[in-house]
Amino acid sequence: MDFAAADIKSLKADRLTCVRNNLELFQELSFELHPGQLIQIEGANGCGKTSLIRILCGLARPAEGAVKWCEREIEHARGEYYADMLYIGHNNGLKGNLTCEENLEVSAIQDHFRQGYDIEQALEQMGLDELIDEFAGKLSAGQQRRVALSRLLLSDAPLWILDEPFTALDYASRERMEGIFDQHCQAGGMIILTTHHSMTIPNTDVQLLKVDAA
């Protein structure tokens, strides 16, 4: 999908401070994400990477600072923001008693899948075409992760926020995802993610964001 140049959008973190259990994880963290860019969040375990992701998604509030989408604080633009953003966290969000196809049909309701979406094609692109009618509960951890990530291929959201998307993926699947990330950014999309893996995304402006304990 190509995102219209006339509808340029951006994400801005403005002087974010995060406190959890009375412990300050990071302070005055600022950055901007624009079309065609990918930000990779780095930092030691416990530094607040997942907490930052939750703040960016509007699932938690910062102790100080604000997250802005198109120059508006996301708490005042939730409808627009959630229509433009797709979040995939550690939890795959799959129901074990539903098939791969049925799980994605459920996701279509909440994820604003693009018009004319093709679940079978998305699963095929993720190497799961033979498992379309398999119950999610019978899949391996890597297969479940690929089902969850196939939502990216079906969504029309320009902004992807991903927490450890490569979890349980083998090398070939990680390469496949890197290609998908590259294509999304080349089309004017934006990605912010956490990962412990090094990435090879040759055509995309990849920026590293170091999160250090306060």
Helix content: 25-40%
CATH topology of the domain at 5-96 and 158-210: Rossmann fold
Instruction: Give the averaged pLDDT, no decimals.
Output: 94
Pattern of helices and strands: EEEHEEHEHHHHEHEE
Question: Which CATH architecture of the domain at 5-96 and 158-210 would you pick?
Answer: 3-Layer(aba) Sandwich
The Rg value, from CA coordinates, equals: 17 Å
Number of helices: 7
Q: What portion of residues belong to β-strands?
A: 25-35%
Number of strands: 9
CATH superfamily of the domain at 5-96 and 158-210: P-loop containing nucleotide triphosphate hydrolases
Q: Shape, please?
A: globular
**Strand order in the sheet with the most strands:** 6-7-8-3-9
In terms of per-residue confidence, which ranges show pLDDT below 50 for 5 or more consecutive residues?
none
Give the distance, in angstroms, between the N- and C-terminal Cα atoms.
Answer: 39 Å
- Which CATH class of the domain at 5-96 and 158-210? Alpha Beta
Helical/strand content category: alpha/beta
Can you describe what's shown?
This protein has 214 residues and is α/β, with parallel strands linked by helices. The chain has a domain at 5-96 and 158-210: Rossmann fold (3-Layer(aba) Sandwich). Helices cover 29% and strands 26% of the residues. It is built from 7 helices and 9 strands; from the N terminus they run E-E-E-H-E-E-H-E-H-H-H-H-E-H-E-E. The mean pLDDT is 94.
